[in-house]
Structures are given as structure tokens and as C-alpha cells.
Amino acid sequence: MHYLNTASSDCILGIGGAGRTVAYKLSKRISPKHCYILDVDDSQFEAGLSLNHLKIGNIDFPADASERIKMTISEQMVLECLFTTSTEIRHLLEKLPNYLFILAGLAGKTTSILLPYVLKQAKEKGKAALVITWSPLHFEGKLRKQRFSDTVNKIIYLADYLFIQNNQSIAAQNREKNLSRLYKKLDETIINQIENLKTDKHE
């Protein structure tokens, strides 16, 4: 794709918890001009994090809140957060480059609501959006798999380019039993996939 290099070099948007993790790791490798995180949680999840963060809504998580506590947020709460922050999102998109490189896991509540809105606003402002995402693992449950499928259907005509990594297939080949190491492996694989896409001579 002729503008893939431009998009990832100019502007990376990490949306939701998984999206911000991959955006952080990718930004360390390629040093984009702009890197923003859009999430309801603005805690510094890793030492040395130095990304621009637009907090969606005003939910305050304790500094020691576990991921389980954060997962109790409801879809209605995310909608309310989006409503209170929609103006800030539109203003952010207005000042960003014309090519947006978006990283997001589509099975989460935050991303399933936030990403379609961001893509719609980007399209209205004449921005090209390239979305890189990944499918949930089988053990994550039917609800997350259904949410992933529903979100793909919502964004497929809003994104200018959509790449989906099959995490279940990679996990089956990897056979890693430790979940922390497995997710790190999946993150590393998607970053390598992005670099392969950037250097693909056939695009």
C-alpha cells in the first residue's frame, strides 16, 4: 500500500487497552512523528511511557486497580465517556496528519464503541485510516468473539485499509502455556506483521 509507510511514520493512534500496548511497543521501534492513546484509563502502564494520552471520559481508576476491576466498566459507561469527550476527539483528529495508522483490539468494550466513532469522524474530515487489529483467543469467550465480529462489520466500510491478525492460529502454533508470555508473543508478531506490510514490494 503506497501510503502505509507515510501513515505509520506520521501518526499512530492506539485505541483501548490492547491498542495502547501495541502502539507503545511499535512507537519505540519506528519513532513516529505523532503517537496518541485514546482510552478510558490513562494510568502509566509501563515505566518510561511517553505518549500523548487523550483520556476518554472521567472515570478515575485507583493507581493499583487490577485489570479485573477495569474490566467491570460497562458499555453504557463507555458511551457516556465518549459523549463527554467527543469534542476533544474531533479537535484532535483535525490537527493530525491526513493518514492515520490505528492499532486496536476490537473485542473490548472501549474499542468496540470508540473506534467506529473515530473512523467516522476521520472520514468526514478527509483522513485516510489504516486499521491494524487482531482476533480474540478462543478462551476469551463467546461475548468477546461476538463483539469482535460486530465491530469488524461496523468498521469495514469506514476504514481505508483493514488488516486482521489471526491470534488463535498463532497461539495454536506457538503452544505457549504462560498467558503473559503468550500475549507478549502475539504483540511482537503483530509488530513484525506491520513491518512486513511496510516493506512489501507488492503493495
Give an overview in words.
The chain is of the alpha/beta class and about 200 residues long. The chain has one domain (about 5-200): Rossmann fold (3-Layer(aba) Sandwich). It is about 50% helix and about 15% strand. It has helices at about 5-10, 15-30, 65-70, 75-95, 110-125, 140-155, 165-175, 180-200; strands spanning about 10-15, 35-40, 50-55, 100-105, 130-135, 160-165. A six-stranded parallel sheet has the order 3-2-1-4-5-6, sandwiched between helices. Helix 2 (about 15-30) packs across helix 8, helix 4 (about 75-95) packs parallel to helix 5 and helix 5 (about 110-125) packs parallel to helix 6. The longest helix has 21 residues, at about 75-95. It is globular, with a radius of gyration of 16 Å. The N and C termini lie close together (about 5 Å).
- The CATH superfamily is Tubulin/FtsZ, GTPase domain
Helical segment count: 8
CATH names the topology as: Rossmann fold
- Give the domain tally: 1
Average pLDDT reading: 81
Give the overall shape, derived from the CA principal axes: globular
Would you count the extended β strands for me?
Answer: 6
Distance from first to last alpha carbon: 4 Å
Helix content: 40-55%
* CATH class category name: Alpha Beta
Strands of the largest sheet, in order across it? 3-2-1-4-5-6
Structural class: alpha/beta
Order of helices and strands: HEHEEHHEHEHEHH
Strand content: 15-25%
CATH architecture: 3-Layer(aba) Sandwich
